[in-house]
């Protein structure tokens, strides 16, 4: 749950305790009853249930009409007062709000908007692969600032589907432009104009958001006062309007002979000889995108039969209406397999050779390291960063031209069977939220991305991406004599950074 969700959940509960509780007590005293608990037992503190006295027991005074105060403020046991959790949450919320120089209005609390959508249905049978692109998906419209995008695979009943049944290889979303009022753009792709991110890849990785198996436990929250600007009417080509597309690559691993090998697109299990374009797969290519494209089938165990089912990508978008109080960020995606600067080639996915040295195994040094350099077209302040890896991944880091660490993102593995904690799968990647203004990069700086994988066993088709959000070197405009209001971004402090010197 995002920080703003938690605040809203508290704010939407029943009202705070009565501002003048003594008035309630005066009314309650008229209804005072003297009752007693059974002999040898402790009184059951239920403010809504009257207790009948037992012969020989000491009387006890209760206040049945104090139900509201009992639930909000707690109930007295002897000389101790038990404080209820909702009341403590209310107190903490009041303290948070009062800590701001300018108390936020109701409009400020409700500024963040959120909506959950479903992708078109994805039909999957055991071992099957779906890798489809969906145009004109349901998405917030208008001139907005995106704050987060979170997705997960669910079944027809809305129940989350675990990775060991449907492996989410990746999902990506990105905007594009079509002629205004055009209803047949889906049939004529020549009319579509891509609206890509800021780089650094030229022909691939144009998405605004994208994750994989780690999606449930990886934050995509854009810290305040920043936002990903979309829907700017001046940005669209004349006569065009913005729409959004979604790509979901899912692999049904129910009943397959080797779940991990199927999720790593190992070619010998898919029994394919050509890629999705009909080109012959190169000799010695062990596995990757070329073997697990839409419509392919991973090998099943003998006799395994299960019905085809429909799943969906359920995605939640949070946003703000765009205003001058927000700062736009640029999206950059680095691919560790893009070695154009070093070797003039790019592969998108790579393989990890197994650790062959027994000495390395004994020292637990079986780590495969991939690294590459890429040029950042335009510098600024890094406000967010996260990596994307597949099973076997340990973590990734991004470094400046002088070797300084800009951001590090580490993998979290599940330990159980339920969705979000699947053993053997990456279920989360840590994110970077630098203190505002402290991590900067310059125009044209050569950055190095490093991706570390365990080589305890071989891996195929693995990826090593790094996403960063970069803002301009300028301060958020604040009205004279006023301070910014409530900061919803945690753990980033609600503090504006001065431009770097």
TrEMBL record:
Biased composition range(s): Basic residues: 20-35
Protein name: Stress up-regulated Nod 19
Region feature (Disordered): 1-56
Any Pfam family the entry gives: SURNod19
Superkingdom in the source lineage: Eukaryota
Record-linked PANTHER family: STRESS UP-REGULATED NOD 19 PROTEIN
